[in-house]
Amino acid sequence: xxxxxxxxxxxxxxxxxxxxxxxxxxxxxxxxxxxxxxxxxxxxxxxxxxxxxxxxxxxxxxxxxxxxxxxxxxxxxxxxxxxxxxxxxxxxxxxxxxxxxxxxxxxxxxxxxxxxxxxxxxxxxxxxxxxxxxxxxxxxxxxxxxxxxxxxxxxxxxxxxxxxxxxxxxxxxxxxxxxxxxxxxxxxxxxxxxxxxxxxxxxxxxxxxxxxxxxxxxxxxxxxxxxxxxxxxxxxxxxxxxxxxxxxxxxxxxxxxxxxxxxxxxxxxxxxxxxxxxxxxxxxxxxxxxxxxxxxxxxxxxxxxxxxxxxxxxxxxxxxxxxxxxxxxxxxxxxxxxxxxxxxxxxxxxxxxxxxxxxxxxxxx
Length: 365
Hints:
It contains 24 helices and no strands. By secondary structure, it is an all-alpha fold. The protein starts with a helix and ends with a helix.
């Protein structure tokens, strides 16, 4: 029979239909509620807006993606669309969210920062590709670990990037080769940072920098020399027992609920390998020695399982593996068999299952 005029005018009736559609399909109800929200959004009370948002949230996963994508495409360029509805679509799967993230004029910096912090790599890539993102947003993106997000950001010619954010990106380009070419070709890259990059980029890019940034030969030679010295300098070996201050910091963060995967990645990038090991072991609730055995002695599969268990994304695994191995003065080499084992660890285990495997292995070690 479908929706009647009485159904459409009765919020309680719509909520009831969301739980028990009867003769109305969930797709029909979803589009009807979304259309009503779009047309009458400015006239709805706060209670009605919350109710409609709740209805749409309940229906989202039961409605075909094609229908949700169609709605997102219709609202992406609409400056009068209800902001709550746009945010709901931006939080959906990336196929639905992408047109809204890329084009909606209603999304503000605060919304972008929420997506960067709470959503996955695909949403972060969409934010990085959005035209005319500001310095606050690009600064947050620069701290993402996914290479694809960083490359998308620096290839976005309209993105506004501050000097301090460029410093972060240039530093990361030492280890992420894919960043080097698009960074050097940006017109707003500070010349001093372009010169610094001459210490690690290819000869082709070095020549490009010399021609486009008017780099003094003496300054160039100094930059290259400093980079070579840094490469030759061996990092300090990790301590068997981390410092008391490191232990206190980890305990404090853990107690406050602030010990998260992002902290691990930040200290690893900073070369604080003792703190990285200690914090990682705490998140896994494993003794430090057992954790180090998993990470450094059992092979890449166990590194992948540890990352999976604490919520580190697959796309960041290579960075974790490489930097942790380099800190231990080990070669970060992955064979085809290793890569297959890593893929299986991420695809075949939930976070809880990965943690269980690690704990069982620790008991039998």
